Amino acid sequence: MITKIKGNRKQQIIDKATSLFQKQGYAATSMRDLASYIGIEAASLYSHIKSKEEILQTICFQMANDFFNSLEKVESENLSADIRLKNAVASHVKVLTKDSAASAVFFSEWRHLSDKYLKEFLDMRNSYENKFIQILIDGYKEGVFKKMDAKFTVLALLSSINWMPSWYKPEGQLSPEEIAENVTDVFINGLKIRS
Amino acid sequence: MITKIKGNRKQQIIDKATSLFQKQGYAATSMRDLASYIGIEAASLYSHIKSKEEILQTICFQMANDFFNSLEKVESENLSADIRLKNAVASHVKVLTKDSAASAVFFSEWRHLSDKYLKEFLDMRNSYENKFIQILIDGYKEGVFKKMDAKFTVLALLSSINWMPSWYKPEGQLSPEEIAENVTDVFINGLKIRS
DNA sequence: CCTACCGATCGGTAGG
DNA sequence: CCTACCGATCGGTAGG
After folding, report:
1. pLDDT digits (tens, 9 = 90+) for B147-163
2. Which positions does the record tag as DNA-binding (chains A, B) (predicted)?
3. Residue B6 has pLDDT above 60, yes or no
4. Which of A6, A99, A148, B4 fits a 20 to 30 Å CA distance from A134?
């Protein structure tokens, strides 16, 4: 039996790079670092990838697409705003926890993308945030959410979730579903006991 | 009149470094970069600082101390938990917005500290988070907050605030006080209309 | 604060 | 996938 190792090498490079970029940051990770972890020479990496930045691009846009697609599915269901917010948070957390190392890189290393990709990336992020903002505005119109600064609230909401990759461990006590539930509960209901 | 430029040079180096570390990251900022922005040669920097890392240490521990002292003042006032939470958030936002570039460096570049300082830094951060956790636990005991995962909630709360330096501009519409009020309101009262 | 310079390391290429 | 190597750049020091 011939094992398909060849096609996996590129993915192996990307996976190891993801882990190193998360731990040390993109700029502080050298191609020699990466190569030695994989067990080949640095020069050999370039048979599989074009450049160091290409690896970062792959990680960032893969994650961006996952987030986007996941959110679009939620939107297509056309439910009431509070349920949609709940589902959107759940979908966000699910994508995030599926590969928390890639998520961490996605959230903190994107600024090392070169101009063209940086612009594309920021456009996608902006558009993603706007979808959340729309849910909050809809909720206000539907009379289920208070009047608020929707953009501010969305940034606070996403930030509180996005920090997770820095402490989330799959073997921890909280499942992705519980995390989503906790976050949604705090943001929708607040901490105060309702009287 | 003789202007005291000599004593200001070190601060000027730290300020410029703060700005560059925020924009490009610590690892991607070279001492030559920094020197040329200041208008001297790279070698001349070392008349004022011992090493590149010393600059990072100065920024990180300066901010850590500011956060710490500010929170201790809030705690010494011995108020009820919900008011203390409100004040703690306000104090945190105030420190954060006073120098948002330094805050951004503090939050995302600390991992480049060498072992000894890294440990010290993480100990301080842990102890800071624990003070917030204690406020939530007190709030539960006092019957003003719901039963919740206090650690999780604090991490979500601090994360949502700490992301701010990436978008906060002093000339923006929201004052530090309004930001603190918005954050506290969401976390304490939630988005849902109380019925 | 500068000139001159150090050894180490960087991302990447040529050619096999 | 390797050897051999490129030019560029890194943090930092010596000596003035």
Report:
1. 999 999 999 999 999 98
2. 30-49
3. no
4. A99
> From the centroid of its chain, how far is CA B99?
8
Torsion of CA A13, A14, A16, A20, to 10 degrees: 130
* A168 class by beta-carbon count within 10 Å (0-12 exposed, 13-18 middle, 19+ buried): middle
In chain A, alpha helices (H): 6-24, 31-38, 52-75, 81-98, 100-108, 115-141, 150-162, 176-189
Instruction: Please answer whether residues A184 and B153 qualify as being in contact, where contact means their C-beta atoms are separated by less than 8 angstroms.
Output: no
Minimum Cα–Cα distance from B161: chain A residue: A156
Is B106's Cβ below 8 Å from some Cβ in A?
no
Q: Look at chain B and count its residues.
A: 195
Greater confidence, A127 or A171? A127
pLDDT for B195 equals: 64
Chain D nucleotides close to protein (CB under 7 A) are 1-5, 9-15
Return chain B residues 36..65 having CB < 7 Å to nucleic acid strand D.
Answer: 42-43, 46, 51-53
pLDDT tens digits along A51-97 = 999 999 999 999 999 999 999 999 999 899 999 999 999 999 999 99
**Closest residue to B186, CB basis, from A111, A153, A164:** A153
Provide the pLDDT for residue A191.
Answer: 86
Residue B122 CB contacts under 8 Å (≥ 6 apart), including other chains: none
